[in-house]
Amino acid sequence: MDTDRIDQIVDKHHGEPSSLIQILLDIQTENSWLPREALERVAERLQVPMTRIQHIATFYKAFSLVPKGRHQIHICVGTACHVRGGSRVLDTVEDLTGIKPGETDLDLKFSLETVNCLGCCALGPVMEIDGKTHGKMAPAQTADVLKNYD
Amino acid sequence: MSDILLTIDGKEVRAKQDMTLLEAARSAGISIPTLCHHEKLEPYGACRLCIVEVETRGHPRIVVSCVYPVEKDIVVRTRSEKIDRIRKMILELQMAHAPDSFILQDLATEYGADKDRFEKEPSFCIHCGLCVRYCAEVKKKNAVGFVDRGIRKEISFIPEIASKECWNCKECFELCPTEALQAAYVLIEALISPETSFKPEEDGDRTKGDQDRKARKGLSVLA
Asked: Which CATH number does the domain housing residue B21 bear?
């Protein structure tokens, strides 16, 4: 992400230090993670200390300080999905992608996260990829779903 | 601005309007234990050790005295069975993180806290924020800050700033109630520049011996 684009985002929020979280969210949405150079530029533009930005960026789970894959897999391990075998779906996806929850594979293809509820317990076990919900997953079906993403 | 009259431990205390309970008590010579308080810094209310019982119109409740402004005609008790019990618990929880801190050990003796009550999670930091706030508010360098949250919250130096500012300052070292800060600093220093990290200081810093001793201690607790 280049400096000009970061400047544009900062300008959109009128360079207000109080808009720090909004600015970081915009960068996160566009870039899918927060590179160090971007944070340094934001700190310089807003005159906010780096310690503060670091605190906020590590506090909220919405921010990532490491690169994320092109596709975000969320697997529900909430109660309803758990009793319907969510953990087995998770195990299979871990095997297929070779990554654990919180990690990203080397090709930056997938990032895997667990979530505690996606609000559609009747569809459990639920796997969500890039916001698209795949309900009633069986471990054997996951390979077919993942195949559609590259 | 008119003075405010209140009662602390049965003693009539006259306080200024913008004072906190802690300041009022200390000005009257009544001591309240604190870990995160520092005169030069804004009150933070992190350690909760300075809790006192405040009674208004016959209703007692527990407040944190370092962030509680003085009020007219309140009755304050800085020691009571309830307060001592809570302080003991706070100390026991903090000692699960920093069992070797001298300040905590002294307080533990006073309040009868058992340092082995809870399973040890030696992070050595009790999140008082003294180093973080001192660096931000007094030195205005922001070399050290908090990262992460909840049980994973810890202090972290910004290497780019720390390598420029910290070597000749280290004023936060003295503030740390558990000396965890030094351990973190020495560790980061060793990671950035392994060959220079234990170089003796050239300028005759009068507290050098003391600091070196503390720094070694910091490392030994980490190991």
From this structure: 3.10.20.740
- CATH architecture designation of domain A71-147: 3-Layer(aba) Sandwich (3.40)
- Give the confidence band of B124 by pLDDT, cuts at 50, 70, 90: confident
ipTM for the predicted complex: 0.77
Phi, psi of B156 (to 5 degrees): -150, 135
Helix axes A20-31, A36-46, angle to 10 degrees: 150
Please name the helix (run of DSSP H) or strand (run of DSSP E) that holds residue B222, with its range, or none.
Answer: helix B208-222
Cβ contacts of B147 on chain A, cutoff 8 Å: 54-55, 58
Helix, strand, coil % (nearest 5) of chain B? 40, 15, 45
Q: Is B158 on the interface with A (CB under 8 A)?
A: yes
Chain B positions touching A59 (Cβ under 8 A) are: 148-149
Q: Is the pLDDT of residue B130 over 80?
A: yes
What are the tens digits of pLDDT across the range B155-192? 999 988 988 888 888 888 889 898 777 777 777 777 77
